[in-house]
Amino acid sequence: MAHILVIGASQGIGLETVKAALAAGHRVRAFARSAGTIALSDPNLERFPGDALSRPDVATALDGVDVVVQALGVPVRDLFGPVRLFSDATTILVPAMEKAGVHRLVAVTGFGTGDSRTAIGPLQRLPFRLVFGRAYDDKDAQEIRIRQSGLDWTLVRPGVLTGGPATGRYRVLDRPSSWTNGLIARADVAQFIVGEIGQGAHIRRAVVLISHPLPV
What we know:
- By secondary structure, the chain is of the alpha/beta class.
- It has helices spanning 12-23, 55-61, 85-100, 122-147, 186-199, and strands at 3-7, 27-32, 45-49, 67-70, 104-108, 152-158, 160-162, 171-173, 182-185, 205-210, 212-213.
- The protein has one domain: Rossmann fold (3-Layer(aba) Sandwich), CATH 3.40.50.
- It contains five helices and eleven strands.
- The strands form two sheets. It has an eight-stranded mixed β-sheet with strand order 3-2-1-4-5-6-10-8, with helices on both faces. Strands 7-9-11 form a three-stranded mixed β-sheet.
- The chain is globular and about 45 Å long.
- It holds the Pfam family NAD_binding_10.
């Protein structure tokens, strides 16, 4: 069993990853500014209030862990202004991991980041850029920083996220020729992340995750 640091653990994919990792028997350090509000009860859970943009917080949180899951998000209201969270946090995290000797990183970005941008359908491209353009430009910088590192990284690019329980019926698209957008439950993304921690089948690779393709 691994000792996992989940950054961005209080909501979304981060929280679902905490739940899935605990269910699999891992020890979890749940890192978020609001970590104290995480309403889970498990002896293997450690709530760690911290700021992903604080070098001391990140360095302290890395002590004794085996794996880092970076699952940051920004509120919808922040999508229409400058976005720097993803790249700035990664610029802090990567050298801190290298210094601490923590080599395994699973980072959640999104479909449309990096070289998956060309796979966005023509009807989706304009609204995608209008709503998510600033955030995804920053996620591009996040991915570049991770790829340039010496870490054993996996980039997880989910499609359009939905709620609900894990279904276990999702597709792992690991070849650029197969990349397409689609729907996927956050809980299924979390199940993939926990499985990847155990198996390491996609080290130094980017994968797209979907359950159901979107209409073209």
